[in-house]
Structure formats: structure tokens, C-alpha cells
Specification:
The complex is a heterotrimer of chains A (221), B (225) and C (260).
Chain A: H1 3-46, H2 49-64, H3 67-77, H4 87-113, H5 116-124, H6 129-144, H7 146-159, H8 171-182, H9 185-214
Chain B: H1 2-47, H2 50-65, H3 68-82, H4 89-115, H5 118-126, H6 131-161, H7 173-184, H8 187-216
Chain C: E1 10-21, E2 24-35, E3 39-43, H1 50-57, E4 65-70, E5 73-74, H2 82-88, E6 89-92, H3 104-114, H4 120-133, H5 149-162, E7 167-171, H6 179-194, E8 199-202, H7 206-212, E9 215-220, E10 223-228, H8 230-235, H9 240-253
Parallel strand pairs in C: 3-8, 3-9, 6-7, 7-8
Antiparallel strand pairs in C: 1-2, 1-4, 4-5, 9-10
The chains are: A mainly alpha (221), B mainly alpha (225), C alpha/beta (260).
Chain lengths: 221, 225, 260
């Protein structure tokens, strides 16, 4: 069987299915991870001592340990205390928790870089601290953290491949199965690699355009 | 139950710890390879001609665009077999992670090189130095110092990514942990301990690099008067 | 000169304000009151606590001792209610502190929409009125990064005015401006004074102080050294210290009592 036939008839259908699973993982994990990051960063900067410490420890753990270890804990270790997560749920949970920690560091840096005068002016016209954070501080901080958070989103697109290690048959997993069966590792993973390169390039471009669209006029001239 | 956990942890700790030697070897090897390749690539991108610069950009795009897991499968099971390279999983992992780290490190160094003011190069050339000397004696010493924070970040990332070598059977910390977990039916404390070991290695290494940065710092640099 | 009607009510009363930062006693018992329509100008050397005083009035800094009364109601010790009081006290900062992600119009409307709960159309109409008042209706769609320093400060005055405050606090409004831009801002503040707005202005601009103030307060090292009408303070100050300060400033700015 020649290469073209192999790719189109044998390889492509399972890869296509795997790609669907990957996309489902990503579409859930990216927004929820980002929102988690905003919450953790806000808790760290504006919360009381208890909330702030919790957020700090959370970030320390999820940024200090490999994502793979976190996935193993969620999928292999939790059952021993009677929490049973399906592979997909374990993977998505791990991605959300982990990327929230990374996002929160970028957002925290951005929050702390906003001049204190902005908060003072907001309070001076009678806004409560909550109103000031929501209307004045966050809109600016979130824009500033776009480069860092974009970086993290792209990482997540690639790290979705680790879901295979907890039995989710996403793109990489589908590839491994075919490659092992037909012993065509180079070919299969070249195709898989090309698909990832395509996804990463598309996401990079989209995020770059988003950053341009949201830029505040006049800044950076 | 807690007492069980603690005795289990004490028993398995040495075994896991010996895995960390493999991990550290893996990380050092990959970081080293990444440095040896990445620094020249950065210099090539900043000072080289369009052709060299373009090729390096392609390399960077490739190795940063692919997931680590896919790279490991592609190289270890695929390319190395096709090319009849008989590398152990450990050496293969160092090679793959090193090639990948080179891509990331090249961008760190490139940023640092670009941030050194043009005036430094102008002054060096006006003294009669050749471009090569100027880069080696004037620009690099400064650029390398500025790169330490970014490099420290790369260390932390590489350390955590080394766990992925589990997928090709390298006997690092996570692989050993999974053996212990399946044998003792106690995955929770074992993987938790694994996490703690990684945290210690990560932040310990970052702290060491921060101390190094302090030692090498140019006096007065970066402080506002 | 600002208009003061006979028997005007006391709008703001400051009683014995004290504030320490670490071991530094910045304010050591400041008291004064201001009637409706008055413009009080506060002068004094750097570090004398003038900015801190203004921030204690609207509780952006909480004083250690003393009390503030706005239209008969106590502001201090009522932190839960402080937003309500702050709506009635406008503040204009030395560094403008315009909201960087909003254009000029939005900077003025945001307080109206979020704090006064006006609807968007009403808020925009009012905001345009205030921008017109400070001469910036054409710049409504520009962002702070696109405005000059003088324009930024005028927007910030419009933002404070839009809230219909009882009193406006100006914290060195022209200190961060290039010399040629100072005039346009002082013009606006003068107009406000002539229109009967109650204001406290901390400034180094002596010429401005003389022409606009109903009373000048001289503060040094946290206490009120001297207080009186411009005429009295500039031509016949009670205290030696005041005399020396006025002279120094006059030298710096090239003015003397004679040629102003």
C-alpha cells in the first residue's frame, strides 16, 4: 500500500477523531483556565490574608509540579479516596487548574503594575473598591497581560497531548495507536506534528490580532 | 491511614530520590545542549544574514510548535529507528529535549542581545575591534547576565517537562513513582511526594540561579539613582 | 476674587487633623473651615503635609486623629458610607490619574454611570457639557495617551465637576505640567472660582493664589503657621517664617509684591 493511500484511508480517520477530542479539550480548558487565572490573581492581590495565602500556595503547587504529575494525581490517585474522574474529565480538570496558576502570575504582575493613582482617582469619585477593580483596574491589567497569557494558551494547545497519558484518545493518542500497529512512527508522527504546527500557528495569529484589536489608542507610540 | 502514608513515604523516598539523579542528569544535559546550540543561533539571528536568520527562525518555529510528547515519539520511535541510531531512552530524551530547549533559549538570548544598546557596538567598533570581537568581549558578557532570569525560567520549565520522558521509559522520578504506586496500591501519597520533590528541585534551582545572578551582577546596574 | 455671600454656610470643617507615617509626624493638628463659594489656597514648602491633608479630607488617607465635617455630617469614622461623601468631594490630582483605557468622554461618564447610576444618554449629555466648560468638547473621543498634559488635567477637572461636588480639592494641579500649559489650567480654575465653586487648592503658583484666593493658609511641618487674605499675607504677614517663604517663592518665580 503506498503512502498516499495509507495516509488517507488508514491514518486520517482516527486522527480526525482524535483531533475532535483535542479540540474539545482545548475549547473547555482555555477559557475556564483563564477565568481561573483572573480569580486567583485577584484573590492574591486584593483578598484578605487567608484568601491571599491560599492563592499563593495554589500557584506554588501548580507551577512547581509537572502537569503530568498533576494529571496522574487526578486520574490514578484520587480513586483511592473514592473520587472517580473519567479520563476526559481528569484531563480537562488538570489543564484548567494548571493553566489557571500560570495565567494568574501574568495577571498578578499586570495588576501590580497599574499605577496606584488609578485606584485613587476611582475611589475619589466615589467608586467602591470592587467597582474600581472591575471597571478601572482589570480592563487595563487584562490588556497588559495579553502577551504572557497568549503564551500560556499556546502552551495549553501543545500540552493537550499529555491527555493521552491518562487514557484520553486525542490526536497524539490516536497517532500512537496507528503508529504502533503499522510500525510507521516517522510517517504518522510527521503528520501529527504537522497538524499541531498548523493549530499552533493559527492560534498564535488569532491571539496576535486580538492583542492589536484591544490595544488602547496612543499607548506605545 | 496517615501513619501508613508516612511509613510508606519513608520507605520509598530513597528510591524516588535516586530517580531524581536521572532527572537532574536529563535536565543538565538538555540545558547544556540547548545552550551550546541556542547561543550561536541567537547570535546568528541578530547579527547574521537573512538566509541564516530565516533558517534559524524555521528551526525555532518547528521545535516550539510541536508538543514535547510528539517530539519524543517522532524522534525516539521514528527517526532514530529509521536512521539506525541506537540511543538509549535516556540519551534520546536528552537529545530531543536539548534540541527543543535550544529553540527557546535562542529566543531568550536574542531578546537580551537586542536589548543591549546600539552604542555599545558603536563604541567597540570605533576602537578598531572587529565585529566578532565586539560581540564576544563586549556584548555577550552583558547579554548573558541579563539572560539569567529568562534562563532560570527555562530551567524550571525543562525540569517539569523532563517528567514527560516517562512516556519513552526513562527511569526518572515519575517513572519510578508509577512503579511504586502500582506495587503498593497507594498512588495518592506517592504521587504527592513526587510533586513535592519536583517543587523542591524547581524552586531550589531557581533560588541557586538567583544567587548566581547576584554574584555576577555588575555593581550599580539597573538601580535608579 | 471669588464671590462670598454674606452669612454663607460652612461647607467643610477640618478639626485637628493629625497623621503619622511610621515615625514621621506629617500633620500635627490642622484645623480650618471653608464657607460656600470660598476658595482657600494652601501653600507651604514640600513635605509640609499639604497633599496628605487633602487626602485626609476625602479619606483616601485615614487620619490618626481629628475629624472632618461635610455640610454638618461627620465624614471621619464613617468608612462604610465613604463613597457617598466622596461623590460630593471632587479631587483633581497632580498626576491627573485619568483612566488610561477610556477616552475623554468615557472618563467623565464612568463616574456618572457606575456611581450615580445615570443612564448612558443622560451621562453623555452631562459629560459633554462639562467638557465644553473646560474647552475640550472637540477632544471627547481622544484617549489620555493622545492628549497633552494641560488637556489631561482639564479632562480630570471635567470628571470632578460632572459629579456636582459640594467642594473640589485640587492637589497641586499644575505642578506636573510644562510651563506653557499651566496657563490653560489656571484659567479654568479661575473661572470656577468666579462662578462660585467652593474649592481648596494646594499650589506653588503665587500669582494665581493672590488673584483667586479668598484666604491663604500657610502650612509648614504639619501645622498652620499663618492664615489670612492674600493682601495680608503677601504685604504684611504676621510671622517671620511666612515672610521668608513668600520671598523665596517670589524670587523663584521672578515676582515681587510690587510688580504683580
Amino acid at each position: 500500500m503506498n503512502t498516499i493511500d495509507f495516509i488517507s484511508k488508514i491514518l486520517w480517520p482516527p486522527l480526525w477523531e482524535g483531533l475532535g477530542v483535542t479540540l474539545r479539550l482545548i475549547v473547555l480548558a482555555i477559557p475556564l483556565g483563564y477565568i481561573g487565572g483572573v480569580l486567583i490573581a485577584s484573590g492574591r492581590v486584593y483578598g484578605n490574608k487567608l484568601i491571599s495565602s491560599f492563592c499563593a500556595i495554589y500557584t506554588l503547587f501548580f507551577r512547581g509540579t509537572p502537569l503530568l504529575v498533576q494529571l496522574f494525581i487526578l486520574y490514578f490517585a484520587l480513586p483511592s479516596i473514592n473520587i472517580y474522574l473519567s479520563p476526559f474529565v481528569a484531563a480537562v480538570t488538570g489543564f484548567i487548574l494548571c493553566s489557571a496558576a500560570y495565567h494568574s502570575e501574568y495577571i498578578r504582575g499586570a495588576l501590580q503594575s497599574i499605577k496606584i493613582g488609578q485606584m485613587m482617582a476611582a475611589e475619589a469619585i466615589g467608586m467602591t473598591k470592587l467597582q474600581a477593580v472591575l471597571s478601572i483596574i482589570l480592563p487595563q491589567a487584562l490588556r497588559r497581560s495579553i502577551p504572557g497569557c497568549s503564551n500560556e494558551i499556546i502552551y495549553l494547545v501543545k500540552y493537550s497531548s499529555l491527555a493521552y497519558m491518562v487514557a484520553v484518545i486525542e490526536l497524539t493518542g490516536a497517532g500512537k495507536i496507528i503508529a504502533a500497529r503499522y510500525f510507521e512512527y516517522t510517517l504518522v508522527f510527521s503528520v501529527v506534528g504537522a497538524i499541531y504546527l498548523f493549530m499552533v500557528s493559527v492560534v498564535t495569529l488569532a491571539l496576535h490580532n486580538l492583542e492589536k484589536k484591544l490595544a488602547i489608542p496612543g499607548i506605545g507610540r | 491511614m496517615i501513619r501508613e502514608y508516612i511509613s510508606l513515604i519513608i520507605q520509598t523516598f530513597p528510591y524516588l530520590l535516586s530517580g531524581s539523579i536521572t532527572t537532574i542528569g536529563l535536565v543538565c544535559g538538555a540545558l547544556g545542549l540547548g545552550f551550546v546550540l541556542g547561543l550561536p543561533m541567537a547570535i546568528g539571528q541578530v547579527y547574521g544574514n537573512k538566509f541564516i536568520s530565516g533558517f534559524i527562525s524555521l528551526y525555532v518555529w518547528f521545535f516550539r510548535g510541536l508538543p514535547e510528547l510528539v517530539l519524543l515519539f517522532l524522534f525516539y520511535f521514528g527517526l532514530f529507528t529509521t536512521l539506525h541510531l541506537n540511543l538509549s531512552a535516556f540519551h534520546a530524551a536528552i537529545l530531543v529535549l536539548g534540541l527543543r530547549s535550544a529553540a527557546y533559549q535562542s529566543q531568550i538570548f536574542r531578546g537580551s542581545l537586542n536589548s543591549i544598546g546600539e552604542g555599545q557596538m558603536l563604541a567597540a567598533l570605533s576602537l578598531g575591534m572587529k565585529k566578532y570581537n565586539a560581540v564576544y568581549d563586549i556584548i555577550l558578557p552583558q547579554a548573558l547576565r541579563i539572560s539569567i532570569p529568562g534562563w532560570s525560567n527555562e530551567y524550571a520549565i525543562l525540569l517539569k517537562d523532563s517528567a514527560t520522558a516517562y512516556a519513552i521509559g526513562v527511569m526518572e522520578i515519575l517513572t519510578r513513582a508509577s512503579f511504586v504506586a502500582t506495587r503498593t496500591y497507594q498512588p495518592l501519597p506517592v504521587y504527592f511526594l513526587t510533586g513535592v520533590i519536583f517543587i523542591v528541585l524547581t524552586y531550589g534551582g531557581v533560588k541557586l540561579l538567583a544567587m548566581l545572578e547576584k554574584r555576577l551582577k555588575t555593581p550599580g546596574f539597573g538601580e535608579e539613582r | 476674587m471669588s464671590k462670598i455671600t454674606e452669612g454663607a454656610k460652612v461647607v467643610l470643617r477640618v478639626e485637628n487633623i493629625c497623621k503619622c507615617f511610621n515615625t514621621n509626624e506629617i500633620l500635627r493638628g490642622i484645623s480650618f473651615e471653608i464657607k460656600k463659594g470660598e476658595t482657600k489656597v494652601v501653600i507651604g514648602p514640600s513635605g509640609s503635609g499639604k497633599s496628605t491633608l487633602l487626602r485626609c479630607i476625602n479619606q483616601l488617607t485615614v487620619p490618626d486623629k481629628g475629624s472632618i465635617w461635610l455640610e454638618g455630617e461627620e465624614v471621619t469614622h464613617h468608612m462604610k458610607d465613604i463613597s457617598r461623601f466622596r461623590q460630593k468631594m471632587g479631587m483633581v490630582f497632580q498626576d491627573f490619574n485619568l483612566f488610561d483605557h477610556l477616552n475623554a468622554l468615557q472618563n467623565v461618564t464612568i463616574g456618572l454611570i457606575k456611581v450615580k447610576k445615570m443612564d448612558k444618554k443622560e451621562a453623555e449629555a452631562k459629560a459633554m457639557e462639562e467638557l465644553k466648560r473646560v474647552g475640550l468638547e472637540k477632544q471627547a473621543c481622544l484617549y489620555p495617551a493622545q492628549l497633552s498634559g494641560g488637556q489631561k488635567q482639564r479632562v480630570s477637572i471635567a470628571r470632578a465637576l460632572a459629579m456636582d461636588p459640594t467642594v473640589i480639592l485640587f492637589d497641586e494641579p499644575t505642578s506636573a505640567l510644562d510651563p506653557e500649559l499651566i496657563g490653560e489650567v489656571l484659567e479654568v480654575i479661575k473661572d470656577l472660582a468666579e462662578g462660585g465653586m467652593t474649592m481648596i487648592v494646594v499650589t506653588h503658583e503665587m500669582g494665581f493664589a493672590r488673584s483667586v484666593a479668598s484666604e491663604i493658609i500657610f502650612i509648614e511641618e504639619g501645622i498652620v503657621i499663618d492664615q489670612g487674605t492674600p493682601h495680608k499675607l503677601f504685604t504684611n504677614p504676621e510671622h517671620e517664617r511666612t515672610k521668608r517663604f513668600i520671598h523665596k517663592i517670589a524670587e523663584l518665580y521672578g515676582e515681587t509684591e510690587n510688580n504683580q
